[in-house]
C-alpha cells in the first residue's frame, strides 16, 4: 500500500527531545508508519506520494487541553467596567450574560468557527467544556456534528452544575452520560468525558455521582479547580478544609480526575495532586484575564504531574498560550531558567494528550496517530536543532502554520482551512454575538 512521505527541514518527533534535521515521516492510513532521514525514506518507499517541505518544521499537532469554544462570543462584549474579582467575573458577568444566554444556534456558530481557527493554528486535538444550562438536552450533539465535519480529534463535555437547580444538574450529567455512551459505541474521532463545575456550585452527593458515572464508563471526570482565591476560601468556610483536601476526603481524587486551572494551591494540595496522579491543565492567559493569579506550574512539573496547556476559549492562538506559559513563570519566580521552550512544546503536544487521557497522540513515532503540522521555518536568525524550540515558541504565530493533518487527512493546506468558508462562519459568529450582547446591554 502506498503511503505519504512528509520530508521537512526539521522533525520534532518527540516534543522536548532534540529535533532532527532532514528527517521526516511516512504516513499510512491514519498513523505514522515510519520515521527516518529524508533520504532513507525516499529510497525505501519510492512509490509513495512525496510532500517536500524544505524550510518547514514538522511537529506533532497541538493539543488544546482546555477550551470553551463558545467563549469567542464574549470576545469584546461591552461591559461598563471589568468585574471586580473572580466571583464577580462569574456571578455578574459570565453566568448571566454568557452561559445562561447560550442557545444551540450560538453554540453551533462558535463551534464551527472555533474548529476552523484551531486547525488554522496547528491544533489537532482539543477538549471542550460547554457551559450552557439552558441549551440542553442535546447541545453536545450539535457540537459533535460540526467537529466531525472539520475532522478534528475532539473530546466534548457538558459542565454539569446545580447552580440553576438540582434538576438542571441531573440533566447536565445525563447530557454527558448519553454522549459518552454514544461516542464509545461509534469509536470515531469525537469522544466524551464526564464534567461538573466546582465544589461551590455542586453538592457532595452530586460530585460523587459525577465521578461514579465517569468511572463506570472509563473516562476522566473534569472540574474547574481553584481558578482564583474564591473556591479555596469557600471550601475553608463550608468544609473546614481546602478544595483538593475536600475532594480527597470525598474519596474522588485519583488518576481519573482532570482538574483544570489549579491556580491557587496550598502545599498540601500540590502534594495531593502529585500523590493521587491527578491530571492538570494550565491556562496562563485566562488566569491573567480573571485576576486568578499565577499557577504553580514549575512546581507541578517538577513533581512529575501530568500537565497540558489550554486556551480556555480566551486567546486561542496556541503560540500565544505557549508564550504565556514560557514567560509568566520566569517573571513570577525571578528565574529565567524555569519553563524552557522545549518543555513548553512538550506540554502543548504530548503533555496535553496525556492530560486528556488520549493514547498514542502527541508524538510522531511509528504506531502513533498522524496528527501533525508543518510550520514555516524561515526564521530571522540562523536556526539549528539547539535553538529551534526557542525560535518556535517565541517567534512564530498561528499564521506561520502551513499544513495540518489530522488522523492522516490534510485539513489545512498552504494556510487555508479546507472545506471551510471562514467569511460565512465569521458572519454567523457576529450574528450570534450580537444576539448575546443585546441581552447584556
Ligand atoms: Zn475553563
The rough form would be described as: globular
Distance between the termini: 60 Å
> Which molecules are bound in this entry?
zinc ion
Report mean pLDDT, rounded to a whole number: 96
**Which structural class do you get from the secondary structure elements?**
alpha/beta
Q: What is the assigned CATH homologous superfamily of the largest domain?
A: Metal-dependent hydrolases
Architecture (CATH level 2) name of the largest domain: Alpha-Beta Barrel
Radius of gyration: 21 Å
**Overall tally of structural domains:** 2
Helix content: 40-55%
Largest sheet: 9 strands, mixed
Question: Could you provide a short overview of the structure?
Answer:
The protein has 441 residues and is an alpha/beta fold.
Kindly list the characteristics that best describe this protein.
alpha/beta; 18 strands; 15 helices; five-stranded parallel beta sheet; nine-stranded mixed beta sheet; binds zinc ion; globular; single chain; TIM Barrel; Urease, subunit C, domain 1; 441 residues; 2 domains
Fold blueprint:
Elements: E1 4-11, E2 20-21, E3 23-28, E4 31-37, H1 38-44, E5 49-60, E6 62-67, H2 86-98, H3 104-120, E7 123-130, H4 139-150, E8 153-158, H5 166-186, E9 191-192, E10 194-195, H6 204-216, E11 221-225, H7 230-239, H8 243-250, E12 257-261, H9 267-275, E13 279-282, H10 284-289, H11 297-302, E14 307-309, H12 318-333, H13 341-355, E15 372-376, H14 388-395, E16 401-406, E17 409-413, E18 416-417, H15 422-440
Parallel strand pairs: 1-5, 6-7, 7-8, 8-9, 10-11, 11-12, 12-13, 13-14
Antiparallel strand pairs: 1-2, 1-3, 3-4, 5-15, 15-16, 16-17, 17-18
Helix pairs in contact: 3-4, 3-15, 5-6, 8-9, 12-13, 13-14
Zinc ion is lined by residues 66, 68, 129, 224, 260, 312.
Amino acid at each position: 500500500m502506498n503511503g505519504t512521505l512528509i520530508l521537512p527541514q526539521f522533525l520534532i518527533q518527540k516534543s522536548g527531545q532534540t529535533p532532527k534535521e532532514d528527517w521526516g515521516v511516512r504516513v499510512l492510513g491514519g498513523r505514522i508508519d515510519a520515521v527516518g532521514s529524508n533520504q532513507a525514506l525516499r529510497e525505501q518507499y519510492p512509490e509513495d506520494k512525496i510532500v517536500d517541505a524544505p524550510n518547514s518544521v514538522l511537529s506533532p499537532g497541538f493539543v488544546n487541553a482546555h477550551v470553551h469554544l463558545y467563549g469567542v462570543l464574549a470576545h469584546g462584549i461591552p461591559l461598563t467596567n471589568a468585574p471586580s474579582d473572580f466571583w464577580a467575573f462569574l456571578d455578574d458577568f459570565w453566568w448571566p450574560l454568557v452561559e445562561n444566554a447560550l442557545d444551540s444556534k450560538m453554540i453551533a456558530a462558535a463551534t464551527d468557527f472555533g474548529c476552523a481557527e484551531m486547525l488554522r493554528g496547528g491544533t489537532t486535538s482539543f477538549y471542550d467544556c460547554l457551559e450552557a444550562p439552558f441549551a440542553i438536552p442535546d447541545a453536545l450533539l450539535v457540537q459533535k456534528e460540526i467537529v466531525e465535519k472539520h475532522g478534528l480529534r475532539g473530546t466534548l463535555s457538558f459542565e454539569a452544575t446545580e447552580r440553576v437547580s438540582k434538576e438542571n444538574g441531573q440533566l447536565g450529567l445525563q447530557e454527558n452520560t448519553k454522549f459518552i455512551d454514544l461516542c464509545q459505541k461509534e469509536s470515531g474521532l469525537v469522544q466524551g468525558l464526564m464534567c461538573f463545575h466546582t465544589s461551590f456550585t455542586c453538592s457532595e452527593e452530586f460530585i460523587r455521582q459525577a465521578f461514579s458515572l465517569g468511572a463506570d464508563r472509563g473516562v476522566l471526570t473534569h472540574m474547574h479547580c481553584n481558578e482564583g482565591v474564591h473556591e479555596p476560601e469557600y471550601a475553608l468556610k463550608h468544609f473546614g478544609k481546602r478544595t483538593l483536601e475536600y475532594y480527597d476526603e470525598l474519596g474522588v481524587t485519583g488518576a481519573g480526575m482532570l482538574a483544570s486551572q489549579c491556580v491557587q494551591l496550598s502545599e498540601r494540595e500540590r502534594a495531593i495532586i502529585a500523590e493521587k496522579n491527578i491530571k492538570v491543565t494550565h491556562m496562563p492567559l485566562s488566569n491573567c484575564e480573571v485576576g486568578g493569579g499565577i499557577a504553580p506550574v514549575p512546581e507541578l512539573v517538577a513533581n512529575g504531574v501530568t500537565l497540558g496547556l489550554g486556551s480556555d476559549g480566551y486567546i486561542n492562538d496556541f503560540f500565544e498560550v505557549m508564550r504565556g506559559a514560557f514567560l509568566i513563570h520566569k517573571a513570577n519566580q525571578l528565574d529565567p531558567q524555569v519553563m524552557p521552550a522545549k518543555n513548553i512544546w512538550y506540554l502543548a503536544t504530548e503533555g496535553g494528550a496525556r492530560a486528556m487521557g488520549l493514547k498514542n497522540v502527541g508524538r510522531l513515532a511509528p504506531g502513533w496517530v498522524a496528527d501533525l503540522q508543518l510550520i514555516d521555518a524561515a526564521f530571522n536568525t540562523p536556526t539549528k536543532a539547539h535553538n529551534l524550540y526557542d525560535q518556535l515558541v517565541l517567534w512564530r504565530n498561528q499564521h506561520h502554520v502551513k499544513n495540518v493533518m489530522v488522523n492522516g487527512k490534510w485539513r489545512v493546506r498552504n494556510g487555508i482551512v479546507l472545506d471551510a468558508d471562514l467569511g460565512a462562519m465569521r458572519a454567523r459568529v457576529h450574528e450570534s454575538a450580537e444576539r448575546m450582547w443585546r441581552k447584556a446591554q
